[in-house]
């Protein structure tokens, strides 16, 4: 891990020491630049985002209670600013490749300045082929793999629970591996059939062409070796993390001057701070109020950017807004209720309590967020799970059943199975074993491990395949055939379903799949993940109206089907990267989809 300013420097900077602020900015600027650069892939806005991150850090430094948490706090701010950059662009408009600065392409800089070669270079080139959301996660995971960040810091920065973060990282790594195969296949001399496949390609990396090229490499004898002999990315990235700053960016944050009480050297009650900057990172004016009595003990901290062609001039001083010190009145405590309620207007204009529909079938996939327990109660869930063997990370409210899961092969241990058994009577099997980026288990490995799950004496729900649960010869079909031949017990079938058709037809498409899986195996069904997400193109997520229509129709159909024992929306939190499909932003604030799901059952 690189040497970065420690707690003493953070504490001094928070107290207004200008030298400490200088050291703090200089010490952490490479980390911020590396995260933003990889997430935005060298887009021209990257420098602006880096500067905005540092401005926000300085502006809010006085609010940081624990100096030891500075790095986690900084990384979380960085991730939020990256997401803000994407959120503020026009809908359905991708980053314009023409806006990229060829001289400052982040991947090229990383390859050149970190002296990448061989498979390290190949991995760096493959990052251009990742989807937007995976590039953000890659920027953090790369730093974890190289020793610059911890998994706890990634969890804190992304707002994901530990288990969900692990799932997301595995999916990202799977896409990175695919992208590495694509990079290899595109190297000359190319396969003649691949050249034909590439007819019409404009040469720009993208999801559609990544999938087409990858599909060709899997089916082509000439290109198949592109998937062989890949060194694990974690081994390649050790010690290859922080990319040196481009010329100018480091000098964008210059000397910091704090006005002090004459003759004392201490900050004045109305102290101001001027940051004199040089460097030509951007032609935009970079100015803003950085603190109001936070860093300097009561004054305003002003930052002004000077065009390099202009003569020196004093930094602008911006008056700090007054901050009220009167504590807000505490919110009244909610009255106890056996049934969660929401308010809606009555004909008389007064609010009336409307109970959430409670069904033993209705549940949710949950990862850690601040409102998990309250949201589970408010939505009327009968059960939930968090992809783990115990509810330590996401404890639920009384009366809502937690169902444990043995996620993959590494969890088939005596200790983990004992924890799961202590949680209840039902055990969920392996998570998407048919995907390399998930539990990635062969049918033979799953069958070999199954007797250990059976030995718990719990009711067993099958492994949940990502797709093809109704397909003859598919992963689940071969597992069930093998279980029957070996006399293994499988009490119910788990399935996942995600629809990319956001029209009214989605309801029947989903329910038709559920029916087909039941017909094939004749066992009770647990739908442990379902939703509307288009993983392959844009728009990725449906509108609120489309989500509400689908939830109403799908849940009504599931409730009517006696063989459907449980169903769980993916997922409960609508925070961080799940704002577009989750149900709750906090304990009692459902999204439009959350309101529809709360009424289900």
Automatic annotation (TrEMBL):
Gene3D superfamilies assigned to the protein according to its UniProt record, in alphabetical order: 1.10.1740.10, Glycosidases
Stretches for region Disordered: 320-359
Cross-referenced PROSITE patterns: SIGMA70_ECF (PS01063)
Domain Asl1-like glycosyl hydrolase catalytic: 380-597
A Pfam family that the UniProt record links to this protein: Glyco_hydro_cc
GO process annotations (BP): DNA-templated transcription initiation; fungal-type cell wall polysaccharide metabolic process
Comp. bias regions, Low complexity: 338-348
Occurrences of domain RNA polymerase sigma-70 region (ranges): 24-89
Protein keywords: DNA-binding, Sigma factor, Transcription, Transcription regulation
InterPro entries: ASL1, Asl1_glyco_hydro_catalytic, GH, RNA_pol_sigma-70_dom, RNA_pol_sigma70_ECF_CS, RNA_pol_sigma70_r2, RNA_pol_sigma_r2
Organism superkingdom: Bacteria
MF (Gene Ontology): DNA binding; sigma factor activity
Family: Belongs to the sigma-70 factor family. ECF subfamily.
Name of this chain's protein: RNA polymerase sigma factor
Annotated source species: Actinoplanes campanulatus
